[in-house]
Amino acid sequence: MSEIIKALELLRSGKWVDLTHEVHNKIPKYGAFPDLVTKTPYTLEKDGFFVHEVSFITQYGTHIDAPVHFSKGKRSLEELELKEFILPLYVINKEKEVEENNDFVLSAKDILEFEEEHGKIEPKSFVAFASGWSKRWEGDFYNKDEKEVPHTPGWSIEALDLLLNQRGVLGVGHETMDTDASKDVQQKGFLYAEKFVLDANKFQVELLKNLTQLPAKGGVIFIGVPKFKGFPGFPVRCFAIV
């Protein structure tokens, strides 16, 4: 048995956790984006085969953001390397803090405290912010107050700088719609944390689920990414093995 097959057998013996939401036209989405539309031009009954024609925005459901999504001249979907789609996984779990403060912002201090307990985050890895927010998927996902102002958690630029530029992390992910906490977007008027990630020519995965089921380290994330030329992103199938 080859070493590759032995490695596969080892992976099969682990716990497999789906990190991807099902996609349909009723899921949460960015407000300005159109709904998913599905047509069925061919059916088994009429044509002997079944085909859907689908119209949807590239950043829909659990999806990857390629750098070109916010940064001109940076990498598009097909330019991401295959080795970036299977990475060591670190999970920073702040579900309790987010429950207490929906406007929680993950700080560089939080990263350093995580490293004090679990060791230094290694380069060429993927870091996920587990907020528990995906449990709201079929409920109050936008969490708007009486003035229609959303309250959702996010990353600080300082935390992202530590991970991307000092630790050499290749990608980050989260359960929310945006990288930025909603309060930062309201104060600054733009998604500056998201732009920071993509300006660094790194990628991110948004609208992940089940992150709170994962250990802080020791797992691997797999990201199934299609190869559309020039695209800024696309829905993906993500899972972890721990």
TrEMBL record:
Offer an example of a GO molecular function term for this protein: arylformamidase activity
Which Pfam families does the record match to this protein? Answer: Cyclase
Q: Which GO terms describe its biological process?
A: L-tryptophan catabolic process to kynurenine
Q: What is the superkingdom listed in this entry's lineage?
A: Bacteria
Alphabetical list of Gene3D superfamilies matching this protein = Putative cyclase
Question: InterPro entries in the record, alphabetically?
Answer: KFase/CYL, KFase_sf
Query: Which PANTHER family does the entry link to?
Result: CYCLASE-LIKE PROTEIN 2
Q: Give the protein name, as stated in the record.
A: Cyclase family protein
Organism of this sequence: Campylobacter jejuni
